[in-house]
Amino acid sequence: HEFSGIGAREFLEKLLTNKIPENGRIALAPMLNEAGKLIGDFTVVSLTDQIAEEERFILFGSGIAEGYHQRWFLEHIDNDPTIRYKPIGNDMTGLSIAGPSSRDLLSSITNEDVSAESFKFLDIQNMAIGMIPSLVGRITFTGDLGWELYCDTVDQVELYNSLVTIAKELNGGPIGSRALMSLRIEKGYGSWSREYSPEYWPQE
């Protein structure tokens, strides 16, 4: 979900339960309904639109709840002219790289500096991964070193194949969803529709 306009930050500050991050940073933010129950769990990205010279925010959430969240956002925006909203779930695809060699993998396929000093935890920026324009954030669902990479849907296969090819050279490869679930439980990361659902209060 993409938000922009002069009223976007204030709107998201009211709608989500965590502080909205500054430009180039990521925050994790639950969303509650009027009863105080969890109805969303988002990765919130803050970016500056260089062309429009204004703030732009992207919220990454659970795909199965995308339609519900879209309706919720539109209902609460209520035709506010200071906020522009656009669902972008069909336009972007996310991939993740994680593990002790993930920095080696990323540095071998981009010209950007991805060292710990230059690319800190919860930083995010636009960069070319190979020849593919991507939005890259230092965060993972496994809990160890890694990045999430978002690209146009049409570039997904090319980006995936490039990452897998390089990973093999580093004795790595694709990870299955069940292994991912095991790793995130070890780290204590909750998952939508499992630990997080409208049945629960934030304290739970």
Put the structure in a nutshell.
By secondary structure, the protein is α+β, with helices and mostly antiparallel strands. It has helices at 8-15, 66-77, 102-107, 156-169, 177-187, and strands at 2-4, 26-32, 38-49, 54-60, 84-86, 92-98, 124-129, 132-137, 146-152.
Explain this structure to me?
This protein has 5 helices and 9 strands. The protein has 204 residues and is of the alpha+beta class. β8 (132-137) and β9 (146-152) form a beta hairpin. The longest helix is centred in the C-terminal third of the chain and has 14 residues, at 156-169. It starts with a strand and ends in a 17-residue tail after the last helix. The mean pLDDT is 93.
Keywords:
single chain; 204 residues; alpha+beta; 5-stranded antiparallel beta sheet; 4-stranded antiparallel beta sheet; 5 helices; 25% helix
Radius of gyration: 17 Å
Helical fraction:
25-40%
Count of alpha and pi helical runs: 5
Binned strand content: 25-35%
Our measurement of the CA-to-CA distance between the termini, rounded to an integer number of angstroms, reads 26 Å
SSE order:
EHEEEHEEHEEEHH
What is the global morphology? Answer: globular
What does the oligomeric state look like here?
A: single chain
Backbone structural class: alpha+beta
Total beta strands: 9
Largest sheet: 5 strands, antiparallel
Mean pLDDT, to the nearest integer, reads 93
* Poorly predicted sequence stretches spanning 5 or more consecutive residues: none
| Strand order in the largest sheet | 2-3-4-1-5
